[in-house]
C-alpha cells in the first residue's frame, strides 16, 4: 500500500518521489530516507502497482529497482516514455554494467545508481532529478553548456566518447580505433575531465542530451 503523503503546494516545484522495489526492507529504507529529507514519498511493491495508480500531478521523480518480478525497471521506463510521460526516473541495480547503463540513459533515465550507494549521494541524485524535471530553462542552459564541452573535445576524444555512448568496453574501442587499451583509458579520462562528468552514466546522459536536442 502507498505510504500516506503530504499534499505539495502547487506553487512550488514537485517534491514527491515514487519508490518502487519488490524488496520490502529496501523499499522502506528508501522511503524513510526521502521522507526524512522533507520529500513526499509514495512506495510501491512493483511496477504494475505504480502504473495502476491514477496519474499523479504532484509527482516529481521516480526511483525504481531494475530487477523485479514481472515488469523490470527498464521495462517500466520504456513504457513511461512510450506513453509520453517524461517523469524523471532514477534506476537502482545491484548488477549494473556498461550496456545496461547505456540502455537506461538512451531510454531517458535521469540516473543509474549501483548498490551499495551512499545515502547523501542518493539524495543529491534525486534532488538533481527533481530539479531537471521541474526547470525547463535550466535544462536549456545545461544543453548549451554540454554542447560547448563537446565542441572542446579533440576528434579522437570524440571517437572514444562515441564508443562509450554505444556501450563498448575499452578493449572494443581500442580495437575499433586501432590503438592500445591503455591509450583508450587516457582518452577516456580526458573526456571525463573535459565533459565534467561525475560518472559514466553522467557522461552518457550529457552526450544524449545534446544528441536529442540536435
From TrEMBL:
One of its GO terms (molecular function) is DNA binding. It comes from the Bacteria. Keywords: DNA-binding, Phosphoprotein, Transcription, Transcription regulation, Two-component regulatory system. Residues 146-211 form the HTH luxR-type domain. Residues 16-130 form the Response regulatory domain. Pfam families: GerE (PF00196), Response_reg (PF00072). GO terms for biological process: phosphorelay signal transduction system; regulation of DNA-templated transcription. InterPro entries: CheY-like_superfamily, Sig_transdc_resp-reg_C-effctor, Sig_transdc_resp-reg_receiver, Tscrpt_reg_LuxR_C, WH-like_DNA-bd_sf. Signal peptide: none annotated. This is Response regulator. It comes from Methylobrevis albus.
